Prior knowledge:
Blueprint: H1 13-20, E1 28-31, E2 34-37, E3 43-51, E4 57-64, E5 69-78, E6 83-92, E7 101-105, E8 107-112, E9 117-121, E10 131-135, E11 141-145, E12 157-162, E13 165-172, E14 177-186, E15 189-198, E16 203-204, E17 211-213, E18 216-223, H2 227-242, E19 256-260, H3 281-290, E20 297-300, H4 335-345, E21 349-354, E22 358-359, H5 362-369, E23 376-379, E24 382-385, H6 390-407, E25 411-414, H7 421-435, E26 439-440, H8 442-464, E27 471-473, E28 489-490, H9 502-512, E29 520-521, H10 538-543, E30 548-551, H11 563-576, E31 583-586, E32 599-606, E33 611-618, E34 626-629, E35 639-644, E36 650-654, H12 655-660, E37 662-665, E38 671-679
Parallel strand pairs: 19-20, 19-30, 20-21, 21-25, 25-27, 27-28, 29-30
Antiparallel strand pairs: 1-2, 1-7, 3-4, 4-5, 5-6, 6-17, 6-18, 7-16, 8-15, 9-10, 9-12, 11-14, 12-13, 13-18, 14-15, 16-26, 22-24, 23-24, 31-32, 32-33, 33-38, 34-37, 35-36, 35-38
Helix pairs in contact: 6-8, 7-8
Amino acid sequence: MKTYPIRFAPDRQLFDSFAHDPSLIPVSFSLDGDDYRGFGSFALTGSEESTAKNGVVTRRLTFAIDKNLTAEVLLAYCPEFGELEYTVFFRNAGEERSRVLHDVRTVDLTVCGDDPVLDGIMGDHVNKYRPYRHALVSDPVEFTSLRGRPTHEVFPYYDLEYGDGGVLMALGWAGSWSAKFTASVTADGTLTRYTAVSGVGFEAFLLPGETVRTALAVFLPYRGRNTDDASNLWRRWFVKYNMPRADASGAPIMPFTTACLAGDTGLPNSDGSISERDFTWRRSLDRIYAEKVPLDFRWFDAGWYLDPRGESVPSDWWGTVGTWELDREKWRGDSFCESVEYAHRHGTKTLVWFEPERVTDPENLEKNFGYKKEWGVACGNVTTNNLGNEECLAWTAGRIIKFMRENHVDLYREDNNSNPFVCWQNADAHEEEIHGAPRRGITENHAVVGHYRLWDSIIDYCRQNGGCTFVDSCAAGGGRNDIESMRRGVPLLRSDSDRTTTALRLSMTTAFNKWIPFCGASSKESTRELAPGCISDIYVFRASYLPALNLSIQWTQKPDVDYDRVRGSIAEWRSVAEYLMKDMYVLTPWHSENDRTGWTATAWFDHERCSGVLLAFRMEDCPDGECTVRLPFAVSGKKYTLANADSGTEETADGSVLSAGYTLRLGAPRTSMLIRIKENDR
């Protein structure tokens, strides 16, 4: 099949062309060995267009593939930014099996332009959001995620530069995926091909009434080849159009503080909130409120539930999940709800941890809590909860919402500490035995869709009951940050590893936050993730300044907590927090978590308010007392005042000087500075 280059542009021409010529829609697939690209070969049986209050235009195109199969293409276009996206749904509308659908490429496109370069970052876990840059003619690249946690090791967000511009792209699929980028120089110009698959290895017929879908594919074109401009275009669009809303009013999510009290119980804590009891929380909250520490969310993590036998869980939070029934031995009577209401009276909301994609001991879960053990799909020591099963989804959502309702919980936090992909494959094999025909990938497809529906049902419950209309997205840290999940959630802990050193934290901020502006980390310095009572001085606090500030403090167990410093650091964070959602400029080269020999400097600037902040760190092993940085947002001919928050001094400089080179000075390693920047006469 011949492919023609797509011409991305900020206007809606490409969006309209997909309706006028459906063969241009950059999707390819096969049916029983017959290959198709786009939908130009099929009859258009339906076309609907609508415009949302925010101006986003949506178009739904329906095609008759054959007597059984239909394809629905859901397109959307954002006029303000020129962002284009689509998802494809295949449905068997007939009364018999469909042909076998296979080799489905969510994206299969070519662009034309000189010197194609791919910029992006790797995923969490072993890669710790390490950035990369590939000159595609000589260095083609392919990424594959086969765990079922989409961003655990790789990261489906890309900046493809070519010609005199580029396109920012993302793939929204909370399962397995792959993406491949190649380029070649031809007589027609340099052609770059991007193909992406959601649901690796999918090959299945569809039963009557059955629907499967592709990933969400997102494209944001830009002109010019300026990395800062492209990155900030993405951040602005992401904050305004991709992030969920804070509550039923539709208000945006604003920066907030959180604290987990598990490290302050004085009891052994294997992880999560396993040590919290009905007699431990009050003294911590009382100290926080007495010291006038602003706390927006109390964070309640793993370990609050009964095990499937109905028994209390002393330490093994991982091997006991699934009941979502409160442990009444730890929390007698109404004590849990009382703790939530006590926090509410002091202006603090509560978030609670769940892990619904995994269950343990399904036999006892069935015996004691109404689960059906056939919903669990085993692989090794893990049993995946099959959220693609309608009954299972309803049971799981019902258990979670029941707990949230009974205990007045404000925010849902979700984790996933397993890799469901192999379990999904095992379930597919069972389906193939039953039907005697390919069903590979069908379990994953239904499970991913079921998971999105689970979040939607929880958010809908919260919307109707005064809770938060977003979730905290976690999967062993940063494993579930695909762009469709980010329309429902934010990562309050972007990585489990980000509970250790400031060097790692600074490294992650300069990479991850270019793509996902709203996130959080720990606010301590330690060698181990779970170590309590560690360093939280001004250097550590400033390295932790993110839109979600997670306070890692032993409020009562550590007698030497400097509450003046805590209050002062939070006040300083609040004074800069809104800037952290604005344009971001990384002023120094990226470094790994093991490199502490240089400077890390980042600036955020609000072009509407004509002001911003600069945070700079002379790291622990850095021998250099000076670092010269360029401030790309400074405009020649305009004057700027730079106020040093530490020394109290101010200086004025022309934008031409600041954009050419501004020298930062710190007298010793492991020190930091905060500079407030304001354009004069504004």
